[in-house]
Each structure stands twice: as structure tokens, then as C-alpha cells.
Amino acid sequence: MLVKGRKPQVASKEAKSAEEYEALQSFLRSISSTATLPPYVKGETYSSVRGVFNQCLITCAVLILSVGAGHPIGFSAVALPQLRKENSSMRIDDEMGSWIASVHSAATPLGSILSGPIMEAIGRRKTLQVSTLPLVIGWILIGTASHHAVLLLGRLVCGFAVGILAAPSQVYLGEISEPRLRGLLIGTPFVAYSLGVLYVYALGGALTWRSVAYLSIVLPVLAFIALCFSPESPTWLARRGRFHDAMAAMSRLRGDSDTAQRELHELISAREKEKARGEESIRFLATVLRPPVLKPLLLINAFNILQILSGSYVVIFYAVDIVKDTGGSLDPQVAANASACVRLGVTIVACLLLLKVTRRFLVLVSGIGTAVCTLALAFLLSQGPGTGIAPPFLILGYVAFNTLGFFLLPGLMIGELLPTKVRGLCGGYIFCLFNSVLFGFTKLYPIMKNSMDIAGVFGLFGASAALATVVLFLLLPETKGKSLIQIEQYYQNPNILWLTRKKTASTQNV
């Protein structure tokens, strides 16, 4: 009975394989001229002007959603001071305030872990569209909340939505963009996050937190509409055997059919080599444990944890409270708004710098600057009150250096370092771990502040930033100007440290 029960499944797999083979042969016949195309050479124009315009236009659709994703991140900094006032209808204490700030990150891991299977099943673009529904529902719950439980539920639903969209946005932009523009386009969602945080901070200075919640519904709705006019990722389509759809999407993204054929041919060739090596039949867990996947996966997760411990997001969630705790003569709300402006401006500068300077240079400068500012602030605060205007300016310096590289790097690494076969699933799991650690650290911040004092907290931020810088110096490969296939080939080499790459047999690709 068991043997008979398996026959239809085997026949189904064989039929599917034969159908996919025929589709591939048909597609290759339709682009038979591809074999005569010259290989891509660094420095040549990779896309036409129309192709670059299309890539930027499609990126803008993702950015609208990313701005909306920044709203719940900055919302707690606006809502907590208003909810603590005596005349607040839902007055809170420090314990409830910590829950409102951190519960957003509690649901994000669930959204993140589901995003991987969802984007592999229905595609990157549709997953982004699906994420807009819980985001809208969450803001409606927050805006209409008459009890703390409903407010927390709204924050949970918003966090779930942000978890769903985080990985697909980075994977989608990484797969639609050409090597020259990939760093810029993958980095732009962080400009959007910063703009979303600044937008909420600015509204919070003039409006009630309920009004801010209602206004936050607009952008997710606009993003859903804009994504209706965007193509699916050619990489995802090609791996699903939809070669003609992949060709249509790639032609639109590159603006030139010859260039599109060449790049798609490279994708298909890499996939056929995987099949020839028998890698397609290997289970997901076994694939993850292989060195070409495990090495970037460990690097990304190690950095993400250290980035959280360096305070990148805690300073956003508790911006006004942190400025108050550090003292100084500047108004805390003004200083918090200034930090959001600095974050936005530096993110824009960092994205532009990614076109000119190497990834390693940018993140190492970011790490050193972050460590210096936080350790200097920790020392200053340990000397007692009466420190003048220095703490707020050191906080702004910390925000600037942290944003320059550390804030952008997680998305860049997911979009560039992970192999194509596991990029969707692993991207979701990475964001799941990231947000789980973020929730715990955000929830523990008030406890750490009371037990270690604010000086000790910034000392922890500085030590974590310094350790992250060392890890990146040793392990992070340089990916500027490299295709995703070339980056995959680098991780197939036996070396672990970036500095020892020239001692291996094959280093010509990275």
C-alpha cells in the first residue's frame, strides 16, 4: 500500500520535471542568440537609461511601504510621553510603557519566520502587498483603542506586518537591481524607515497619538496600489520555471533585451549547474549546513545581534527618554527630532556613498565612530550631572556614525551574501532571530538602565560596537560591483577570513 501510494507522487514529480525541461528548452530556443553575447565587463553600462529609470521607479513603490514600516518603529517615542501625562485617558507607568515600546518587536519574529515560506510560495512582490493588510488593521486598532490591551494588540499586529515585509523588501530589491546600483537601491529602504520615523516624530509634536495612528494608514494603501504596477522578481520566476515571464520582467528592468538575455542566461546556467551537482534534491536544513550557506548566515546573525546590543533601535524607541536621562540643556523633544533628522540625512548620504566607496570602508568607519561616541558618552555620564550640552551632541554623533554603515548593513547582507536558493527562506529566519533579540533587549532596557545606570548602558553600546567592528573587519567580503553569482562563488572557496582570500586557489571572482 505504501509503495502504491508513492507512485502518483513520483509520477507527478517526473511530469513536473519534464514540463519544466520543455519550458527551459523552449525558452533557450527563443533566445538562441544569447550564446553569442559578450560577458558582462565591469565598467560598461549595464542597463539602458530606461532600465535604470524602471529600477528606480519600482524601488519607489517599495519605499512607500518602507516609510509606512518606519511609522510603528518611531510611534512609541511619540506616544509614551503623551500617555504619561496626568490628563491622559490611558495613563501608563514605566512597566506599561516598556511593553508598548517593545511589544512591536515581539510579533515581528512571527511575521519574519512566515515571510520566508510566503515569498517562496507566492513571490516577493505579492508578499509585500499581503503585508499591507495587517499594517492597516494594526493602525486602526491603535487609533480606536480605549484600553491598554487594545493598544498593545494594535502594536502587535503592526509588528507582525513589519516582520512580513522586512525580508522580502531587501530580497526583492537585491534581485531586481543591477550590480552598479544594488548597494544604493537595497540601502534606500533605510532612508525610508528614517523618513517614516521622522514623519511620526514631527506629527507627534503637533498632534495626538491617535491622530498619528490614523494618518499612518495612508502610505500602506498607496504602496499596495503602486506594487500592482511592478514586476515580480526575475530570479524567483526563473527558479519557478517561468522563463518567459522572467525574460519579460528582466527586459523591463534592464531596458535592453540583449542585456536581459545575458543576465537571465547566467541565472539559468547557475541553476542548471546546481541540478547537475544534485543540490536541488538536498533538504533545506542540509543545504543551510553547507559551508557556502553557513558562512554568510553566521556572519549576518552575529552582526545583527551585536548591532542590536550597540543600541541602534533602542535609541529610536526611547529617543525622548534617553535624551532626558543623559541630561544637558537641550529640550528632549527637540533633541529627539534632531536625531531623526540626522538619521535621515546620513542614510541618504550613506546610500550615495555606496556608489563610490567600498562596503567594508563604510561599515568600518561606522563601527569605529559609533564605539568612540558611545564610550565617550559613557565616560562623561559616569562623572555625574552638570555635563552641559555635550551629551545631546554625542548622541547625535552616535546616531550619525551608527546610521552610516551599521544601520544599512543587515539589509545589504541579506540582499547580497545569501545564495539564491535559500535567500527567501533564510532571509525570513534571519529577521525572526533579529526581532526576537530586539524584543528582549528593548524590553530589558528600563531594567538595565535602573541597574547599570545610563552610563553603563552606553558603555555596553560602545563595547558591542567595537566587537562588531572587529567581526566585520575579519569576515565581511567586499561585494561592491560584484554580481550575485560572483558573491556566491566567493563563499564556495575554503577561506573563512577575508584577509586570507588570496591564499586560496580560486579568488578571481571576489
How would you sum up this structure, described in words?
There is one protein chain. By secondary structure, this protein is mostly helical. It is built from 21 helices and no strands. Helix 2 packs antiparallel against helix 8, helix 3 runs antiparallel to helix 4 and helix 10 (243-254) crosses helix 11 (257-276). It is globular, with a radius of gyration of 24 Å. The model is unreliable at 1-7, 32-45 and 503-509 (pLDDT under 50).
What's the quick description here?
With 510 residues, the chain is mainly alpha-helical.
Task: Return the structural class.
Answer: mainly alpha
Spatial gap, N to C terminus: 53 Å
Shape: globular
**What proportion strand?**
under 5%
Mean pLDDT: 82
Record field, number of beta strands = 0
What sequence of helices (H) and strands (E) makes up the elements? HHHHHHHHHHHHHHHHHHHHH
Count the DSSP helices: 21
Point out poorly predicted stretches.
Answer: 1-7, 32-45, 503-509
Largest sheet: none
Oligomer classification: single chain
